[in-house]
Design brief:
alpha/beta, 37% helix, Rossmann fold, globular, homodimer, 3-stranded antiparallel beta sheet, 323 residues
């Protein structure tokens, strides 16, 4: 089976780990969000791509959900000793090496997609990980604070401000010009199933969908999404603060409407959201919380089952082939 | 008193520490060698400037003589895990932060002299440290190995090959075009005394002297040098391999002749080299080995005394003012 999944950071990565376990032998292509990318101290940092790569490659800090396991922070301490800003980004030493390699390859002229492939040669994530675009498309957030109304980089709002200052607007700088990275549209065209994991619907999935041509390529496909909202709150992260910025309620219903048909055909919600309904979308209630690999696998399997059901009504993947 | 000292790495830095102790209240300008500089993984590394800065600023690995104290090597290990070359350069994590800051400032357009000043704002080395040039002037070494006759970066010859392959030629790439960094010639013009510490006479002191105008500026000054050779062998390092490359014997006599008048007016040698003589140069025998701060201070004091004697025959600094 050929599966395409979009992905943000932690939630997406954990879902993908479940998916790898649920669909062994499948060809999985992951389209990763790069809107959170940031240049720090001259190093190109791709938090979401790295979270997917480290999680699937066995290098993640399991407790934290991002960054490297057995991480140290000597470089960060030393940069602070020099008085270098910003000091609010938690750049670990192992992670720094990844960014050094990436930055060097980018400077040598390789596109981010080729760089990501090269980094994955070490991590062997078991999926083909492609950035949504090789172009610069960076999420900025308009806020008003003591310095007035201004746009800050998404990471500054998310990490430094912990999304505590209301986001008045969320802008994808370069979003109108960004083209899908090589392989993205072909992977979607070839896909039997497309999955939207419970990543942030605004700054992760929403950002990927902003890239010219990706939404249009997805619409004719069987697309099953997993609600990132359970009982009116994000499963993790601060998706509510992002949804507020675009005037969308923090409910499984509202996020489904945000995606809507013709994009989404299947929607998995938690038991407490079983009442969610939308014309043209098959909604099913399942346990959404990924506590461990087993629950992530069950969730991925439920998404695949729903997709199979949508593609061939009456025949689940357990009973036969998905197509 | 205004003192100018040229400096390479470890030997120069230790001598300077002695000098700071021997001449408190003096205004010391250090002209640092940048011929050993190398770009690694996109980071600009200045080994000699950093050795001086860390040694005088209290951040040096005392045992090793270079690199940071309490150093870790996580970034280096991770780069190796990605298969990134070269892997023979011992880049520590604390050190990496210095190179990140330097590289960022250089990319922002600051000249190396301004960057060095900014880094020294943290380390407060007690001297004014100026790179010999803001231009690129990089020492390369011509060798013949299994890959044929070729030029390698000085660090590759020095660190990877441990100078075990004969240097057929030592080239300063960009040496003819390099201009002294701002402040270098003025500091020399204003100096009461110029000191040549026991740094490598070819790839440290020799390199600095190659920069257009520096040698000429030094010649009219009172210049006292400390022999880097004791009893036919380098005090430390592999100066013999460098001297061989330029056809100079590894003796205190030969190095003095290499510098020669009108550059050098005073020359300190070890007791076993007391027979060294050269017209126009006052040679004195003193203990040259810097075992600790006290012996480094004694050596620096001996150099200053000789300089005072040369400037005002009959009146040493201990008896009165140097000038």
């Amino acid at each position: 089976m050929r599966i395409v999944s979009l992905a943000g950071g932690i939630g997406g990565a954990r879902f993908l780990r479940g998916l790898l376990s649920a669909a062994p032998g499948s060809e999985i292509t992951v389209i990763g969000n790069t809107g959170d990318d940031i240049t720090l101290y001259g190093l190109q940092v791709c938090p979401d791509l790295d979270t997917v790569m480290y999680t699937l490659g066995g290098g993640i800090d399991e407790e934290q959900g991002w960054g490297r396991s057995e991480e140290t922070h000597v470089v960060k301490e030393e940069l602070a000793a020099y008085g270098v800003e910003p000091q609010w980004f938690g750049l670990g030493d192992r992670d720094v090496a990844t960014h050094i390699v990436r930055t060097q390859m980018l400077k040598a002229g390789y596109p981010l997609s080729a760089v990501t492939e090269a980094l994955c040669a070490r991590w062997r994530p078991g999926v083909r990980l492609i950035p949504m675009t090789d172009d610069r498309a960076e999420t900025h957030v308009v806020i008003t604070d003591e310095r007035g109304r201004r746009a800050v980089h998404f990471q500054e709002w998310w990490v430094r401000l912990r999304a505590s200052v209301p986001a008045e607007q969320i802008i994808l700088v370069g979003g109108d010009e960004a083209r899908p990275a090589p392989g993205v549209l072909q992977a979607v065209a070839d896909a039997d199933v497309v999955l939207l994991p419970p990543s942030n619907p605004v700054v992760s999935i929403g950002t990927i969908l902003r890239v010219k041509g990706i939404r249009e390529a997805l619409e004719p496909k069987t697309v099953v999404g997993v609600s990132p909202i359970v009982g009116g709150a994000p499963v993790r992260g601060m998706a509510d603060a992002c949804l507020r910025a675009i005037g969308v309620e923090t409910t499984a219903q509202a996020v489904l409407e945000l995606y809507g048909p013709p994009l989404v055909n299947g929607w998995l919600v938690a038991e407490e959201d079983a009442g969610v309904r939308l014309d043209g979308v098959r909604v099913e209630a399942r346990p959404l919380i990924m506590r461990d690999l087993a629950s992530a696998r069950d969730l991925a399997r439920a998404a695949l089952d729903l997709a199979a059901e949508l593609a061939h009504p009456g025949a689940g993947v357990r009973e036969g082939n998905a197509r």
